[in-house]
Amino acid sequence: MAQLPGESTFVVDLLTTLRAEKYSLRAWWGFLKRLWQMSRRTAREHPRLARSWAHVTFLNGGLTLATLMLSFALEGLEAGWRLLPGFLFCVAWQQSDLYWHLGLNRRSSDEELLPTVGVATALTGWRGLCASYLLSRLLGGVSTPSTLALGIFLLGVATDILDGQFARHTRTQSKLGQVADGEADFCLYLALALILVQNGLLPLWLGLLLLLRFLLPLLTALASYFILARQVRFGSTVIGKWAGLAQCLYFLLLLSPPSLAPFTHFLQFPLLIATIALLVLAPLAQIVANL
């Protein structure tokens, strides 16, 4: 939720009112209207922050256009037109969601509002673009070769490493970055899991388990917000970090070139067992941390 100093209680009151009115269409309209007003007020009172959001949006728009042009050139008109609507929708959703949450651009340590979106959150947004591109291919029915998925996945991993380094080095760790990081990871790993299932590299049951690793905390957060009218603490746990690392390594093994199969074959089963165990524990740890 987009928040300003001292307005946490106001957000909870909005959620309580929404629940009291039994989630009617009128209540939802009033709820979304007030949240939009809060986001607009943040932008008006902090024009530098709003300008930095516009710069990030312009840059991501340019990257989106370049990606689309490359897809049209390399894969033909039919494939390009099929992935176009989904890609534009996902990118538009990502940038509008960032705007709605500008009030969360606060340093995690002291709640100070940061004046710009920052390099770290921009890098997280690039990982979101990677996820948007893969999701658009799935939505458009365009097959994704494992080599392409591997290249995009490595780019996403690189941004995941760099955004944390930049945030710590510049002391710009923020709640906005935590929210954007979680959303980007969810979308990227969801798209990769579906592509691996589609390409026959991952069994369906395991793909569903990987999805639950992100979906269960998300559903818990939504229930906390809209049913209990209680805010949720964003952030990761130690088990969650280990689960993410194990899942990342397992995906790398599955997407690795066939020439490396003699080396990766022996690692897949033990890494699979470790990944499954951590994926089961990670959502539970997140729920316990919030409780």
Can you give a write-up of this model?
This protein is mainly α. Among the domains are: 45 residues, no CATH class; 155 residues. Helix content is 78%, strand content 0%. The chain is built from ten helices and no strands. Helix 1 packs antiparallel against helix 2, helix 4 packs across helix 5 and helix 6 packs antiparallel against helix 7. It is globular. 33% of the residues are buried.
Topology (elements, then pairings):
Layout: H1 8-20, H2 25-45, H3 47-75, H4 77-100, H5 119-139, H6 146-169, H7 175-198, H8 204-226, H9 238-255, H10 261-290
Helix pairs in contact: 1-2, 2-3, 3-4, 3-5, 4-5, 5-6, 5-7, 6-7, 7-8, 8-10, 9-10
SS-based class: mainly alpha
**Sheet of most strands:** none
Count of individual helical segments: 10
Task: Describe the global form.
Answer: globular
- Total strands: 0
Strand content: under 5%
Order of SSEs, N→C?
A: HHHHHHHHHH
Helix content: over 70%
Q: List low-confidence stretches.
A: 1-7
Mean pLDDT: 83
Round the Cα radius of gyration to an integer and report it.
20 Å
Q: Could you give the distance between the termini?
A: 19 Å
